[in-house]
Design goal:
With 399 residues, this protein is of the alpha+beta class. The protein folds into three domains: 87 residues, Rossmann fold (3-Layer(aba) Sandwich); 64 residues, ATP-grasp fold, A domain (Dna Ligase, domain 1, 2-Layer Sandwich), CATH 3.30.1490.20; 207 residues, ATP-grasp fold, B domain (D-amino Acid Aminotransferase, Chain A, domain 1). The chain is built from eleven helices and 20 strands. The strands form five sheets. It has a five-stranded antiparallel beta sheet. Strands 3-2-1-4 form a four-stranded parallel beta sheet, with helices on both faces. Helix 4 crosses helix 5. The protein is globular, with a radius of gyration of 20 Å.
């Protein structure tokens, strides 16, 4: 029986655990939070911080694992690459390459040096140094931690006078005390955040989505819904696919799922914003399995232990699909979830993670999600009607 070590313990790796068990693998989950939900479903729990790569290396060696992965768990991705490289386990790419993809500052620098479209960007560890560089940027700008996911710590800054405050906020969410400032790119339509897959460095499955936001939330840069197909033009989808493939070749990436964010902008250019060798949070690979039948989840598990990849190929969407990230716009006590009868026939899955009487936070990051709603529509027009006016179809009711 093969052993696989999964870094992290959130509910987003429950499908990974299920897939591993279906394949007959022994599953060990690892983090420093023993009460995390995923540990209830694994075969064994290892209490080690996933950002302590040498501690994870020691644990993996002692456990004699056949593979390691960090799916939908950004902090563990570089650690997984480090451990796999040290122990000679299957891996998505070298630790050096994965570290470039995982650090927003290093990634922007790599893109610029290799001729990719890239926003004016610079990484820092010093607040004062960043403030001295205000004339380097084309305002407004975006400030982000270099090593966080789920839109945590991200703010748009319109005036240099407010830069320090935004940097201090970003640093609260950085494990490495690093942040990046980059020009704000005005998008056309919706940006894309979804998953893709390579086999031996060759892109075999590429997807683009329409990533949507709730402007009334505490953090308007936290995705509140996704839909497929994307709004990005066919021309730019082809260009981005070629550029993603070029990126993977330059970094000598191998077999892996990737969570990729791209954007089509008003300046006529398309940009790769992020490309992380992991599955995305918010159940993106599950949505793609619904929409295309391609199982990136099971194949991510196969890749982690070096087994053959099965059935990863480009397929069309079987309809128009949407995922609503259920959330409360403000903090309070949850009462109920109201869903209009008008979309009852469109609901494929309703997954609510809390009960009446539970406390909820305002939607400041992906960690404040309280569930998901999966919907299928026959037309893009009807999908847009619902997602552009979500409050008329789905509401979180507080006591």
């Amino acid at each position: 029986m093969k052993k696989i070590l999964l870094l992290g313990g959130s509910r987003y790796i429950l499908p990974i655990i299920e897939a591993a068990h279906n394949l007959g693998y022994y599953v060990i989950t690892c983090d420093y939070l023993p009460d995390n939900i995923a540990h209830k479903y694994s075969d064994e729990y290892c209490n080690v911080s996933i950002i302590d790569k040498d501690a994870v290396l020691k644990a993996a060696a002692e456990l004699k694992v056949d593979g390691i992965m960090s799916f939908a768990c950004d902090p563990g991705v570089a650690t997984a690459a480090y451990v796999a490289e040290k122990l000679g386990l299957p891996h998505s790419g070298s630790y050096k390459s994965v570290s470039i993809l995982q650090n927003k500052g290093l990634f922007r620098k790599f893109l610029a040096e290799n001729g990719f479209n890239v926003p004016n960007a610079k990484g820092y560890t010093s607040i004062d140094e960043a403030i001295e560089d205000v004339d380097y940027f084309n305002w407004p700008v975006i400030v982000k931690p270099t090593d966080s996911a789920g839109s945590k710590g991200v703010t748009r800054v319109d005036e240099p006078e407010k830069l320090r405050e935004s940097i201090e906020y970003a640093l609260k969410f950085s494990h490495s005390n690093e942040f990046i400032i980059e020009d704000f790119l005005e998008k056309v339509g919706h940006s894309s955040d979804t998953d893709s897959f390579s086999v031996d460095g060759e892109l075999k499955f590429v997807s683009f989505s329409a990533q949507r936001f709730d402007a009334s939330c505490e953090n308007p840069y936290t995705p509140s819904a996704y839909s497929w197909p994307a709004t990005i033009s066919d021309e730019h989808q082809k260009e981005l696919t070629a550029e993603i493939q070029r990126l993977l070749k330059l970094l000598d990436m191998k077999t892996s799922v990737y969570n990729i964010e791209v954007r089509e902008c008003t300046n006529g250019k398309a940009y790769i914003m992020e490309c992380s060798p992991r599955g995305g949070g918010n159940r993106l690979s599950e949505m793609l399995r619904y929409a295309t039948g391609v199982d990136l989840i099971t194949n991510s598990v196969r890749a982690a232990v070096g087994d053959e990849i099965v059935g990863v190929e480009q397929k069309d969407y079987n309809g128009c699909w949407a995922e609503i990230i259920l959330h409360s716009e403000k903090s309070g006590v949850f009462d109920s979830l109201w869903i209009s009868e008008e979309i009852a026939d469109n609901i494929v899955e309703r997954d609510l993670w809390i009960e009446s009487g539970d406390a909820v936070g305002g939607f400041s990051g992906a960690n404040e999600a309280i569930g998901t709603l999966v919907l299928r529509f026959d037309t893009q027009e009807r999908l847009n009607e619902v997602l552009l006016d979500q409050g008329n179809y789905v509401r979180v009711i507080l006591k």
